[in-house]
Amino acid sequence: MISKSTFEFLRLLAENNNREWFAENKPSYEDAKQNVEDFASSLIRVLSKIDPVIPADLDPAKSVFRIYRDIRFSKDKTPYKNNFGIGISPKGKSFDGASYYIQVQPGNSFIAAGDWQPPTDRLKAIRQEIDYNGSDFDEIINKPLFKKYYGTLSTEDKLKTMPKGYPVDHSHIEFLKLKSFIVLHEIKEEMFQNKKFEQHLSSVFESVQPFMLFLHNATA
């Protein structure tokens, strides 16, 4: 699980986002990073029992994103992220397709699952699958546990108008406008130290499996 000291490191980093402070507190960073890698290992163990595409022997170090920011083309020149990110797929954080992302950040921790900003061919395939099998899609996203943990799909990445080839009165118009097909589940900080957290994670991941399978089948 994620320790309180890891969250404390992230809080202090957000207040002191500079290279001098980071260098002075490098041991705390190393401890926090190891804690996150251990947590990633537990996530992989849970997910591999639920999702057959996730290998049980996936190296957790390959799933944890670097904390260093790429500031070359950014107006924000702070050198470090104020969170730890974990990407889980058949190839860890580097995968082109539906996958999982877990963010560890004070006040903004969450689980995300789905296909974020897929390329044109994959985007068309997902929209076509929703168009062809809308009743199956509806059944998946309306299941009680799915709605309990995720609500509905994120609408942050969405077209203002209908994509070409679909009527404006299509029954799934709001989903066909999406450019990313992801769902989010918020995690309260205190949950990371809860003894039943792994059991909770298992339920959260199980509830999203039909959605992930739908995306995999659409782009297979």
TrEMBL record:
Source taxon at top rank: Bacteria
Pfam families found in the cross-reference section: DUF2461
Designated name of the protein: TIGR02453 family protein
Organism placement in taxonomy: Bacteria, Pseudomonadati, Bacteroidota, Sphingobacteriia, Sphingobacteriales
